[in-house]
Design brief:
Rossmann fold, 3 domains, 4-stranded parallel β-sheet, alpha/beta, 434 Repressor (Amino-terminal Domain), single chain, 12 helices, elongated
Length: 335
């Protein structure tokens, strides 16, 4: 049986409204009433955040970052940025895996609420609109209210979303090629159907269209090293070879760079390349890879601060989209 506010109200003798106010952190109710409602809620194993109740809070907020734990520099850089931001904001940050295949995201969240969590950040790039919609529906049915934001870019977001300005990233990459007097350019895109891939590609193509840069070569990648490596074969056999190529992430650019070097080409003499994210791999490649800089600490700071504002104001979740600025970190892969 699913426990609701009504069950707690019936057992304590208080109204559903009073129970809701206590469990949502209202401090204008006597301590005895708060203690009794919290006691019964815990006895019935009702999921709630004890830390948001003033009499139990020590003032430091506890935030959970739920993410797909995966190998690689991208996630390592993201987590490092988040924990640096949390330390500067005096927030306790925990990292929880979303890769628990036997559990739904709803189950993971309700389990964390029982461990006194003030807010949740979803850093799950594979989530789609239908996944967010189902999660919110399940939380509403369970009468669970907790601030949640997302770092995953989707079309028509239904949660407060904070992510990087991928459109500007593509735009700036094309601008760099234009400033180097290039006329023919190319792009290796990210996975089809992903909003972040579309935004980066659209920014690149829009600049090209309005500044007489001809996109003569275009390949569909999937954000992996292998897809970047394979793209070099297409480049070799293309009728018109671009002078500069924008890769929608650094891993694909690294794959292409190594394949090109193995084939005897020299970057940037034969072709200039720009990646996206400016991960440590950019400095391991020879020549060092120019890339769109994404500041993960700033992403973490804005995300955590947004959650703190939601917690303080107890606002309803609104589908806002905030974009973190990006910039070009130009190195030696652009001639």
């Amino acid at each position: 049986m699913r426990i609701t506010l009504k069950h707690i109200a019936e057992k304590t003798g208080y109204s559903i409204s009073t129970v809701s106010r206590v469990l949502n952190g209202t401090n204008k109710i006597s301590l005895d009433v708060q203690r009794r409602i919290v006691q019964v809620a815990e006895e019935l194993e009702y999921p709630f955040n004890k830390n948001q109740i003033p009499m139990y809070s020590n003032g430091t907020k506890d935030i959970v970052l739920i993410s797909e734990l995966a190998h690689g520099e991208f996630y390592a850089s993201a987590y490092t940025g988040y924990f640096n931001a949390a330390g500067k904001l005096d927030v306790n940050l925990s990292l929880i895996s979303a890769n628990q295949h036997e559990k739904s995201l709803f189950d993971i969240i309700t389990a964390r609420i029982q461990h006194q969590v003030d807010g949740i950040v979803l850093f799950v790039p594979t989530m789609e609109y239908k996944d967010y919609k189902k999660l919110l529906e399940d939380l509403n049915k369970a009468q669970i209210s907790i601030p949640i934001i997302s770092n995953g870019l989707i079309e028509n977001p239904i949660l407060p979303t904070i992510t990087f300005d991928g459109y500007s990233g593509g735009f700036v990459a094309a601008e760099c090629f234009h400033q180097r007097n290039m006329k023919k350019v190319g792009i290796v895109k990210g996975p089809s159907g992903k909003a972040e891939s579309s935004f980066r590609a659209n920014g690149f193509k829009d600049y090209c269209m309005h500044h007489n840069l001809e996109v003569v070569w275009e390949v569909q990648g999937d954000f992996t090293f292998d897809s970047g490596y394979r793209s070099f074969e297409s480049f070799q056999h293309s009728i018109q070879q671009p002078q500069g190529i924008f890769f929608s992430n650094d891993l694909m650019a690294a794959g292409f760079s190594i394949a090109a070097t193995n084939a005897g080409l020299q970057i940037p003499r034969d072709v200039s390349i720009i990646g996206y994210d400016n991960l440590p791999v950019c400095y391991q490649l020879q020549p060092n890879l120019s890339s769109i800089e994404t500041d993960f600490e700033e992403l973490g700071r804005l995300s955590i601060q947004t959650l703190l504002d939601l917690i303080e104001r107890k606002d309803r979740l609104r589908s806002t989209l905030s974009l973190v600025p990006v910039s070009l970190n130009r190195k030696k892969s652009v001639g």
